[in-house]
Amino acid sequence: MSGGPYNYSYIFKYIIIGDMGVGKSCLLHQFTEKKFMADCPHTIGVEFGTRIVEVSGQKIKLQIWDTAGQERFRAVTRSYYRGAAGALMVYDITRRSTYNHLSSWLTDARNLTNPNTVIFLIGNKSDLEGQRDVTYQEAKQFADENGLLFMEASAKTGDNVEDVFIETAKKIYQNIQDGNVDLNAADTGVQLKNTTAPADRKQTQQQKQDGCNC
Amino acid sequence: MAEGGPPRGATGTGGGGGLGEKETWELFSNWVCCVCVVTFDLELGQALETVIPSDYKLSDTEKSNICYLAFPDSNSGCMGDTLFHIRIRCTGSGTGGTDLRPTNHHYGAPLVLMPDPAYYYGFVYFRQVKDSDIRRGYFQKSVVLLTRLPYITFFNFIIQRIAPEYFTHGLASLEAACGNMNQWPPPRPGQQLHLPILGQIIYVRLPTKSDKPAARDGEGPVIKKSSSVVVIPSVHDLNLHQALQPVLNNFEMIWELVITNEPIVVMGPSPTLCANTVQALVSLLHPLKYASDFRPFFTIHDSEFKHYTTRTQAPPRVILGVTNPFFTKTLDHWPHVIKLGEISSSNPGTEESRPHQRSRSPGDLSDTRPGVFSRYKPFLQKDKTFARLVISNKTPPGKRPMEVQNVMVKKHALELTTSFIIPLERYLASLMPLKRDVSPWRPPPQLKPFDSELFLKGMEGAGPHLTSRVKGNWTGLYQ
């Protein structure tokens, strides 16, 4: 079991939220496939993607739910927030309206996730500097005031895309290390690996405990 | 996403062309033909309101069957939510999807889990609630998932997951669920599959034909502490103990009726109970596949109602599950009737299930006590040890958990079936030409004819009595 590409110790659940057309699916696609999708159809409800990343020497599988921005799916997508360990909240730096709606997305995220959920604000389309409609400083200030992590990124060039996913994972892992996340509690969005093989699970738990003690 | 599968499985956004080709339903159709919403229209009666994918082609007969079978036969007793499954004959081409194309996804699957080319399985979630805004005062709607895969437990879970969401959030939710299913990897036997559905990941492994009956059999879906993951230990295993409770006392006889392909009607108070019991009867033959038709839930509106209930011919060799009391008259010429009572979990009622010798007088037909009504004289004797162990498990010291009871019932059925089949296999093998006789320079060797006399004679030395503790006239059963 050890060393293989499918070996990982944790599963983190992410959701990606934000207005229609800000590039949520493209960010996910860039992260999982390392490619930019020029023609991306509207997301129906929720799409799903996974990738294994490494944080502090731990392999972590990210299960990412990419929600539809369309208003008609809003009620549906709300039910996906539950149990998310990380929420990526995306706006488009070239469209102020998508930025103005952030408070509504943030309210949903705060109300529907648990207090330890890491929320990362992403200003997408940073490659379109000429059409910029929201300054970096303004968004940075909004993030600081609300205790959010923040970065600008580009799903097109791939700039910072890797970082936002990994920084979020680092923060979640940090929360686990600090004892802020109870691994036995429901809906933390964090799981120890191997829900199918109890023996493995025990082993992983053992490793985990050892890790904590030292 | 398949563990150990192609790299895309571990890193992709769902594979199959990814997000760019969502309009193809290729991945979806590996699992599901279509999802329908059936509503009660005051003008039209039951009507198909929605079909996803919208271009999936159903014939008129299929549509009518889906509509009528999607609602319980008598709605009065079904307030709230009702879950059951149906089986209907394919009459259309089904060409809206790609589900008829030959596929090797199922290579290595057990026979009983192969897709059924001639039938649809429909998993129905029916909701009936009071709603004063509607003219008749009731909201009545069903979500039906149609598939050719007999993964009973699995799809029962899926429909329970997607239908209530639909009733709460509307069509957008059903589209989202179908979108998720259109990201699923193909149903390959033996692989651990991770299937996203409405914010949860289902972990499931499809069995292969070389699997040994596992100790975990018969458990329901396990919801892990983390609500984002559900483990379904088995896609098709039913709780046989529960489904067959009213007839456990006649277990060997029931098994004989099924393996000899006798016409059986199951009459029960709800489609849920009927469907489970009919499915349980059919599964008694595992690993053999029940080759005749069976209908977990059958109504007078089924397009084959006339054909199956005619009195001009002997009853068809099928198993039907019915709830409409009308069938007690229509099918009173059927030789074997299983009646189900209301099953209450607190009282595993078995004392009523003494074999009833069914009489033709109408007075006895209205007898609603659960049990088997049949004039059939079983060839095999009862296995008293089995009966004592499984049925009289009522006294507190002998109280075994349901799962264990279920495994015991399943094991007993498996033992009967394999004991029955081993002598046949052995004899058939002896009819095959020897390898040394097969040669390109000689005419193809002939199979020896099946000589039933000879076969039965061989039984003395190699009969089922060697592998089964059930005594009785096995020879008579073969004849």
Automatic annotation (TrEMBL), chain A:
Alphabetical UniProt keywords: Acetylation, Cytoplasmic vesicle, Endosome, Golgi apparatus, GTP-binding, Hydrolase, Lipoprotein, Membrane, Methylation, Nucleotide-binding, Prenylation, Protein transport, Transport
User: Where found?
Assistant: Cytoplasmic vesicle; Early endosome membrane; Golgi apparatus, trans-Golgi network membrane; Recycling endosome
Q: Does the keyword NADP apply?
A: no
A Pfam family assignment:
Ras
Q: What is this protein called?
A: Ras-related protein Rab-14
| Molecular function in Gene Ontology | G protein activity; GTP binding
InterPro entries given in the database record: P-loop_NTPase (IPR027417), Rab14 (IPR030702), Rab_GTPases_membrane_traffic (IPR050209), Small_GTP-bd (IPR005225), Small_GTPase (IPR001806)
Q: Which NCBIfam families does the entry mention?
A: small_GTP
- UniProt source species: Geodia barretti
The organism's place on the tree of life at top rank: Eukaryota
Query: Which SUPFAM superfamilies does the record associate with it?
Result: P-loop containing nucleoside triphosphate hydrolases
Which reactions fall under this protein's catalytic activity?
GTP + H2O = GDP + phosphate + H(+)
From TrEMBL, chain B:
Per UniProt, residues of the UDENN domain are 33-479
Annotated region (Disordered) at: 342-372
**GO terms for CC?**
recycling endosome
Question: What GO molecular function terms would the record report?
Answer: guanyl-nucleotide exchange factor activity
Q: What superkingdom heads the lineage?
A: Eukaryota
Homology family: Belongs to the DENND6 family.
Please give the PANTHER family that the UniProt record associates with this protein. LD41638P
Q: What is this protein called?
A: Protein DENND6A
